[in-house]
Amino acid sequence: MTLTWPDRADPAVTADGWTFGRQWAVMTGRGVRSAARQGEFTIAIVMPMVFALGFYLPLRLIMADRGIDYAQFLMPIIVLQAVAFTAVAAAQRATLDKLRGMSRRLASMPVRPLVPVASRMSTSLIRSVVSIATALIFGALLGFSFDGGLLNAAGFIAFSIAVGLVLAVGADSLGLLARGPEATSQLLVLPQLVLGMLSTGFVPESGFPGWAQPFARNQPISHFASTMRELAAGDPTWATARPALIWLGALAAAFLALAHYTQTHRRLYP
Predict the structure, then answer these.
(1) CA 238 to chain CA mean position, Å
(2) How does DSSP classify residue 265?
């Protein structure tokens, strides 16, 4: 018995339209449905509320005594923590696809090489938007507001989405390299929490001991939070935005290089 593969150049056996777009749409739909079944969108809604209440309630009076509107001060780091947890979910999604054999199956099919990662990033983008929207709605209930008009508010949201996508690309690549979801969580959750706590997102730089202030001031989370805080206030400055954009560009370059490596040297087996 002889098997003959269909000629993909023959219009009779090839569907019209953009192949990448069709495959991406199907895979993205699968990812969104899977995320919904596993409760990821519920977590995306609950986590910003938990973080906001966990820090706002015990610290708001202390910050008020120092002349700080804590709802306004806190919201950028709540948004950043929300998109960081989205990145952790992206890593676990990639790991589970590998463990369940989906990555190996897709590699054996006529699926465009970038479709799987593009669909996972689209799913992460949707979850990030849900988390950001939830954080901003809940922040408004606590007293947060955009004081700089529509353009600065759009910049705040666009910057937070950009950070979320960059983190998701890196986390997705680490998820493909990790041997299991537990290892993925250990790789990502602890650094995320440490960098968040040792940043100027929750407390101002003066709230840290002198030996910790240089690190708290110069690490990327602090720069991201400061930039978003200025955008929310309607007073963005290049001096604050420049280091944040440099950090974001450097992380994007590093994570895209890692993503290229994982896509061209894919570990399809656990």
Answers:
(1) 24
(2) S
